[in-house]
Amino acid sequence: MTEVDVPSGAPAAIATPAPGDPRLARLSLNQATTKRLTVHEAVDGCVRAGLPAIGLWREPVADAGLAESARMVADAGLRVSSLCRGGFFTTDAGVDETRRAVEEAAALGTDCLVLVVGGLPEGSRDLPAARGRVADGVATLAPFAAAHGVRLALEPMHPIYCADRGVVSTLGQALDLAEAFPAEQVGVVVDTFHVWWDPAVHDQIARAGPRIASYQVCDWITPLPPDALLARGMMGDGHIDFGRLGASVAAAGYAGDIEVEIFNADVWAADGDAVIATLARRYVQHVLDG
Amino acid sequence: MTEVDVPSGAPAAIATPAPGDPRLARLSLNQATTKRLTVHEAVDGCVRAGLPAIGLWREPVADAGLAESARMVADAGLRVSSLCRGGFFTTDAGVDETRRAVEEAAALGTDCLVLVVGGLPEGSRDLPAARGRVADGVATLAPFAAAHGVRLALEPMHPIYCADRGVVSTLGQALDLAEAFPAEQVGVVVDTFHVWWDPAVHDQIARAGPRIASYQVCDWITPLPPDALLARGMMGDGHIDFGRLGASVAAAGYAGDIEVEIFNADVWAADGDAVIATLARRYVQHVLDG
User: Fold this and answer.
1) Predicted structure pTM score
2) Is the per-residue pLDDT at B59 higher than 90?
3) Which residue from B47, B133, B48 is spatially nearest to B90, judged by alpha carbons?
4) Residues B36, B38, B44: CA angle, nearest 5 degrees
5) How many CB atoms lie under 10 A from the CB of residue A102?
């Protein structure tokens, strides 16, 4: 029986790598890709498919319980490649929430806390001030995180989200912020969706070097779905050249897990195992061999 | 009777400037803002409202006839602040179409031809190659345009459009391209919608200096409408700080017309005179006095 990719419905171009296949050695399921699954279900899905790592999100972890979540991933032998997410420093609750997120990351056994820094405060048009609040938030929390063995991973977000999600819009800008701190305290996330368009992206990946705390992949698809927050596609369904970006990330020295993070209503509606099988195939095709 | 702003429905915050008001001296209606209007109707609308300039689009000009359009704007005493648009150099027809657009710009009496450079070619993921084609297209046409008294105005587009509209994504990148040519041959468009998020925007506006060929304004609104091409808002309805951007543009030496260009289904559905009255008020409030 031919397997079918989701959500495209196209026949699978390659066989699904089996558990133990060395090509899966760095592949991580970011939990946002299988949004309907509990931590327990997502962990089981990773184990069945042979994925060695998972990127967790705070909300489902809270639903399952922090200690129970930590126990489940440990029992399953999975690495926790990151915890999403802290940040939102442009809101009043941002710093306190991020402090809790640091503690949760430590409890879950990951050293990578992804920060989405927040958009413009309600009613404000002062972008430089919002960016200043981000710098202040990072300065406040970097030593606290380091004391917990957690690195803050600043995620530059696609400029489409500048007003309402993240005022750090380029990898270069994230590095300008990060470089005020030791590399082991503050790193950056390279997410293909957010950075693929940037004329400076390869230079900035090289500049990032050991500050790359996480590499996340998904595709840019057109036409954009009506909800721009759900505009991410399965690798290969869109316009991103993963080979070139991956080569730059590797040349910069990054050898950690590679997370697949896809916000997409059609992916969320699909069967979890089918999603994980598809992303494993597409990862091999486009990210490893791209 | 209190006037009402469109499309917000909010009461007008200031009186509509009357024809002859010196605050209107640089205000231009980009025809895309009143998409349903013919050239004749848009010209009449500008005259009724006292706007001294109009930015034309090739399609409605073709509908009205090139010579007839030129006659109408001349008879009305309007400046043609720009013609939209040439470009699409990443498609096979791009260069030839842009050559025709240059001739039309000259016939209409404007020295500013706005270039939307085009997205990735169908099925291609090779962004550097697409950007290379843009450089080639500009090189091919810059002398031709100059011989017609027309300057090519490269418009960096918001990264949301990188895949399908314009692979020139930042003002800095546009200037890298433009600076291979004399400033009087190749300039850039500063459109607030496209550049407002860029951490380098003020530095790049200063760098642009006499290369600023057009300054276009509209707002970034959230949530984004379902069709991302129609995501532009009336000034004041969104998140952009027009005061700061306008100050940088003025400091760079730009003293030309300021076009209001809004792609927005609700604006298009509104009465043309109401749209022009609103944009005149909002221009005074947010762009002149912002």
Assistant:
1) 0.97
2) yes
3) B133
4) 110
5) 24
What residue type is A262 in one-letter code?
I
Cβ separation A169–B198 shorter than 8 A:
yes
B47 and B29 in contact (C-beta within 8 Å)?
Answer: no
Packing angle, helices A201-208 and A171-178, rounded to 10? 20
- Rg, Å, chain A Cα set: 18
The tokens for A110 are: 């990951």
| Cβ B102 vs Cβ B145: under 8 Å | yes
The whole-angstrom separation of Cα A39 and Cα B181 is 57
pLDDT of A1 > 70? The answer is no
Q: Within its chain, how far is the Cα of A290 from the centroid?
A: 20
Instruction: Please report the pLDDT score of residue A228 as a whole number.
Output: 84
Residue type (1 letter), B40: H
Rounded to whole angstroms, how far apart are CA atoms A253 and B111?
50
Q: Quick check: A278 and A12 in contact, CB under 8 A?
A: yes
CA distance A35 to A50: 19
d(CA A125, CA B285): 15
Q: A interface toward B at CB cutoff 8 Å?
A: 120, 125-127, 131, 158-160, 162-164, 169-170, 172-173, 176, 196-199, 220, 222-224, 226-228, 238-241
